[in-house]
Amino acid sequence: MQAVAAGAAAVLVLRWAGIAPRTCLIAGACAFVLVPVAAWIASTVPGPPPGSSRERDDRRR
Predict the structure, then answer these.
(1) For residue 31, how many other CB atoms are within 10 A of its CB?
(2) Which of 24, 28, 34, 60 could bond 10 through an S-S bridge, CB–CB 3.0 to 4.6 Å?
(3) Cβ-based burial of 26 (10 A; exposed 0-12, middle 13-18, buried ≥19)
(4) What is the pTM of this model?
(5) How many folded domains does the chain comprise?
(6) Are 4 and 32 in contact (CB under 8 A)?
(7) Do residues 23 and 14 lie in contact, with contact meaning Cβ atoms separated by under 8 Å?
């Protein structure tokens, strides 16, 4: 759903800015593809190692 929203927002904003329709559609399609790809890449980043300073800060709260 976020990919659809990102693509639609890109198309609408670029059209509002006066960009050619075909260019807007290409940019919207790129946003539609890149949002899920970026989410997938972000999901592969490992968490902090055990005993890291971030983990210690969370336990103090």
Answers:
(1) 19
(2) 28
(3) middle
(4) 0.67
(5) 1
(6) yes
(7) yes
DSSP state of 45: S
Cβ distance 7 to 28 under 8 Å?
A: yes
Residue 57, token pair as written in the block: 């800060």
| CA–CA gap between residue 14 and residue 23 (Å, rounded) | 8
Q: Is 19 helix (H, G, I), strand (E, B) or coil?
A: coil
Polymer length in residues for the chain: 61
Range of the domain at 27: 2-60
Query: Are 10 and 21 contacting, i.e. CB atoms less than 8 angstroms apart?
Result: no
